[in-house]
Amino acid sequence: MHRFGFFSQFYRDLRTHKLRSFLTLFGITWGTVAVVLLLAFGTGLQRQSLKSMHGMGERIVILFPQRTTKPYQGMGIGRPIRLTDEDAWLLQREIPEMEAVTPEYGRWGVKLKYKDKASNTRISGVYPVYEELRNTFPRRGGRFIDPLDIQMKRRVIFLGNETAKKLFGEGEAVGKTITVNGVPFIVVGVLKEKMQSSSYYGSDSRAGFIPATTFTSMFGHRYVNNILYRPKDTALSKQISKKVYQVLAKRHRFDPEDKDALRMWDTTEFDKFVFYMFLGLNLLLGVGGVFTLVVGGIGVANIMYIVIRERTREIGIKMAIGAKKSHILSQFILETLLIVATGGTIGFLFSLLIVKIASLLPIKQYIGTPVVSPPVAGITILVLGTVGFVAGYFPARRAATLNPVQALVLGE
C-alpha cells in the first residue's frame, strides 16, 4: 500500500507541473538519445570498416619479392629475388605456425570475350586454398577452382561479379564458354558480391581466376607475383615473419636481416590500427553524449531542489511522526531515479526507432549500419544510473538533514 501511494504521488506531481515535468524528462531523453545514437553509429561505422577491409581476406599476410639492399656472400646489392611455387610449399613445411600458404600469379590486360562483349581484365593463377584466404566465395550454383582443375590443368575460370556482368549482363554465366586471349575457357563460378576497401592488385569483382597450373602453361610464367599465408595465431605474426626471412634467405642466398629483399603486408596490423582508432572515436563520441546527459542530470537536480522546497512541510510531518533520515533520503533518490528512468526509457525507445529507420536507408556502404549492441545498452544504463543517483543524492541529503520543527514552520 505504501509503495502504491508513493508511485501515485510521484505521477500526480508530474501531472500537476506538466511543463516542468516535460522539460525535466526532455533533458534526460535527449541526453539518452545522444549517448545511444553516437555509440550506435560509431559501432556501425567500425564494423563496416572492418567488413570492407576483410573483403580482401582476414588475418592474412601478403609476401612480395623485392631487391636486395645488402651485399651477401660476395653478391652485390640490387639483385632481384624471384619466388616460385616451391618457395610457398617450403614455407609451409618449415614453418608449422602457418595455417595456410599459397602462391599467386598475376597478369594484367587479358582479353575476355563472350560473343560480342569483351573486357580487359586482370587474371590470377591460384590454388584452391586461395578461396578461403581471400574470401573469394562463389554465388550459389557455382564453385571456385578445385584440386582436379590444378591436377588436370583445366581451362576453367572463376569470374569476379562485375566482370561477369560486363560479359553476360544479368544472364547466367556458369557453364558458358568464354575466350581468354582467344583460348576457350568454361566459367565454373562467379564471385559472390562482397565489400572490399583494401587490395594489392585491384578489386576481386573486376578480376578473373584460373588454375595456377593452367596459368603457367598458358602464359609461361616461371615466377609468382606474391605468396599469401595465414598464421595459426596472430600473436605469432612477428615470429613467423622472422622465420620467413630466414627460410627464404637461405634458399635465395640473401642476408636474412635485409628487410628490403622481401616486403610483407600484415593485415592484422591494420586490424589493430582500426580497433584503436575506433576505440578512441567511440570514447570521444561517448564522452560527448555523456556530457549531454549530465546537463540533463543537472536539470533534474535543480528540479528536485525546487520539489524539496515545495514539500518542506510534508518532510517535516513525516520526520515528526518518526520517519528516519534514511527514509527521506531514499524517497527522494528513488523519485529522481524514476524521473531519470522514465526519460531514459523514452530516449532509448526513440533511439531504437531512429536506428531502425537508418538501417533501411541506402547509406550502409558509407557509414555502416548503426547497432545498439549490448555494450552500448550497458554503457547507457550505467551512465543513466550514475546521473540519476548523483542528481538525486544531494537534494535528498538536504531534505534528510532538515530540522522537523523548522521544516513545519518553513512549510507553512
Task: Describe, in plain words, how this protein is organized in 3D.
35% of the residues are buried. The model has no long low-confidence stretch (mean pLDDT 82). By secondary structure, the chain is α+β, with helices and mostly antiparallel strands.
Give keywords.
9 strands; elongated; 412 residues; 6-stranded mixed β-barrel; alpha+beta; 56% helix
Q: State mean pLDDT (0 to 100 scale).
A: 82
SSE string = HHEHEEHHEHEEEHEHEHHHHHH
N-end to C-end Cα span: 28 Å
Helix/strand-derived category reads: alpha+beta
Q: Kindly state the percentage of residues in helix.
A: 55-70%
Radius of gyration: 33 Å
Strand content: 15-25%
Number of helices: 14
How are strands sequenced across the largest beta sheet? 2-3-7-4-6-5
What's the total number of strands?
A: 9
Low-confidence stretches: none
Overall morphology:
elongated
Q: Report the sheet with the most strands, covering strand number, pairing sense and barrel closure.
A: 6 strands, mixed, barrel
Short description:
The chain has 412 residues and is of the alpha+beta class. It has helices at residues 2-16, 18-53, 85-94, 130-133, 147-152, 161-168, 212-219, 237-252, 267-310, 312-320, 325-360, 364-367, 374-400, 404-410; strands at 61-65, 98-114, 117-126, 156-159, 177-180, 183-190, 207-211, 226-231, 262-266.
Secondary structure elements and their pairing?
Elements: H1 2-16, H2 18-53, E1 61-65, H3 85-94, E2 98-114, E3 117-126, H4 130-133, H5 147-152, E4 156-159, H6 161-168, E5 177-180, E6 183-190, E7 207-211, H7 212-219, E8 226-231, H8 237-252, E9 262-266, H9 267-310, H10 312-320, H11 325-360, H12 364-367, H13 374-400, H14 404-410
